[in-house]
Automatic annotation (TrEMBL):
This is N-acetylglucosamine-6-phosphate deacetylase. Signal peptide: none annotated. Zn(2+) binds at E128, H193, H214. Keywords: Carbohydrate metabolism, Hydrolase, Metal-binding. GO terms for biological process: N-acetylglucosamine catabolic process. It holds the Pfam family Amidohydro_1. The lineage of its organism: Bacteria, Pseudomonadati, Bacteroidota, Bacteroidia, Bacteroidales. Its cofactor is a divalent metal cation. GO terms for molecular function: metal ion binding; N-acetylglucosamine-6-phosphate deacetylase activity. The gene is nagA.
Length: 387
């Protein structure tokens, strides 16, 4: 069926289109045009002056709807994915955190199954750890980090083609060889939970670490050791021109001043927004039953309040937070859709409203609340408060 969305502000790679329409059919965008005349035979959707924008690309997400991807069950994968789809995440890379390799093999099998389904929002697997610096890993990774083992990571990567990203600490022995191997396979490699300084970041980037996970979090900035001062991971990443970054823009992990600084120094093309969301995100108000964590002040904390444990953000929250911080809406949307699509090498079909791309489309009102979601051309009925 041909569907035509009219009477909205359409966000395109060229900027805002104030009068026009988006046409979709068979899961694809047929055309984005400056003509809003109703086409004969089309199902007409009136956007009522709201924003028509690309679906979000979620490239770092641990779970949602009460489930964590480390459960490695089909129910967990489908529930968490759908929970975030309701908040605009039309493309998802499920994240497995510091897990035993038998679980990584299980997750890869599940991911492959979902990727093969027509119109699936799952585009590949993201692994965070277990090759992390123990000093920077935090309590939530206690007992789960380990030294880099070439045999085990090669065995996993030779058994599956679904892994699209892997995060590690670049200062660990064997990390540069790990990055080179992954780069040869076209997998994004990110620095994470690290205290690497400039020379280490420079060497890491040259080896294949081209992205910085949850920038500013679990990494040091400018610091002092005895009487001397040293640049931290943060400044080192800023100085590495080609390295991309991601921001947990939930308004808690990073203050608005830091969001603006990262946006100013790295720019839209090198900055993407991520939820880094845990199982207790997108739960529609349900309480969590894990004694290790508490939800307080709009974030998940360790029960003893010694540290943030993770985010409960959703894609729409990220965009609202950036706009509230003073970032233009168009740039916030690009960082939630176009930039992660480019970084994950799926921009040929995701991340923008363009002819022949997948029909992943959101309608958002003036307060940037989701009013309707189309994923691969299918309206997600639970999201529809538009018509």
């Amino acid at each position: 069926m041909l569907t035509q969305i009219i009477n909205g502000r359409i966000f395109t790679p060229q900027g805002w289109l104030n009068e026009g329409s988006v046409l979709m059919r068979d899961g694809k965008i047929l055309e984005v045009t400056n003509c809003d005349l109703a086409l004969i035979g089309a199902k007409l959707i009136d956007a009522k002056g709201m924003y028509i924008v690309p679906g979000f690309v979620c490239m770092h997400i641990h779970g949602g709807g009460g489930h964590d991807f480390t459960e490695c069950t089909e129910e967990a994968f489908r529930t968490a994915t759908h929970a975030h789809l309701l908040h605009g995440a039309t493309t998802i890379f499920p994240t497995l955190s510091a897990s035993p390799f038998d679980k990584l093999h299980q997750a890869a099998a599940l991911c492959e199954k979902m990727m093969q389904e027509p119109g699936s929002p799952v585009e590949g697997l993201h692994i965070e750890g277990p090759y992390l610096n123990p000093k920077m890993a935090g309590e939530q990774f206690a007992g789960q980090v380990k030294a880099i083992d070439e045999k085990e990571y090669k065995e996993l990567l030779e058994s599956t083609n679904c892994i699209r990203r892997w995060d590690a600490s670049p200062e660990l022995p064997g990390a540069l060889e790990f990055a080179k191997y992954l780069r040869e396979k076209g997998i994004l490699v990110a620095v994470s939970h690290t205290e690497a300084e400039y020379d280490e970041i420079k060497a890491a980037y040259e080896a294949g670490f081209t992205h910085a996970a949850h920038f500013y979090n679990a990494m040091p900035g400018f610091h002092k050791r005895r009487e001397y001062k040293y640049e931290g991971t943060v400044e080192s990443v800023y100085l590495t021109d080609g390295m991309t970054i991601e921001l947990i823009a939930d308004g808690i992990h990073l203050p608005s001043t830091i969001l603006r600084l990262a946006y100013k120094l790295k720019g839209v093309d090198h900055t993407c927004l991520v939820t880094d969301a845990m199982s207790c995100s997108a739960t529609a108000g349900k309480e969590i039953n894990d004694p290790r964590y508490i939800i307080e002040d709009g974030v998940c904390k360790l029960a003893d309040r010694s540290s943030l444990a993770g985010s409960i953000a959703t894609g729409d929250v990220l965009v609202r937070t950036m706009v509230k911080a003073g970032i233009p809406l168009g740039d916030a949307l690009r960082m939630a859709s176009e930039t992660p699509a480019r970084i994950m090498n799926i921009f040929d079909r995701k991340g923008s409203l363009q002819k022949d791309k997948d029909a992943d489309i959101l309608v958002m009102d003036k307060d940037l609340n989701i009013r309707a979601v189309w994923q691969n051309g299918q309206l997600i009925e639970e999201t529809n408060t538009l018509f």
